[in-house]
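Hi V.,

You were right to ask for the full record rather than a summary. Here it is.
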Amino acid sequence: MKGIVFTELLEMVEDKFGIEMVDDMIQQSDLKSEGVYTSIGTYDFFEMQQLLAVLSTKTGISIDDLVYTYGLFFFSVLYKHHPNIFELYHDPLEFLASIENHIHVEVRKMYPDAELPTFEVLLKDDRQIEMIYSSERSMYMFAKALMEKTFEHYNQPVKLTMEKLNEQGTKVYFKLASLNQ
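Predicted structure:
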């Protein structure tokens, strides 16, 4: 997993819970990296799981809710570093439909070793999109948050429905319908 995901997680935790919580997360996890991350490095996803587990235990917030909150936070990071990508699209449905064939292609150019989820578009029209999220990392709540923030970015209300297609959450069905008339 790319280091920026780790560095920004620690940034979010510091902002929301304080530097002591960041220190506790690192101290209470068995991290090969010892909790030292660079945004361009690559780290084992197991470290992310450990950090989130400690944070969940210490805060009483479920891991799914923490991952969702992190996705909301991370959207601003993406926009800050890549505003030009958002300017290429006129609405959130068009943007989301382009994830696999444009956005992830660009990400792989910058980070050839990035392990990204896949998004299979099942249906897209001018009012809705249906997609299957697939990832061994089961970070579907992160994806959900990014999708919701995408609609918010384009000032469009959305009705999002989600269904886990397996118990692990490695395959999740998403339906996003624009509520604009």
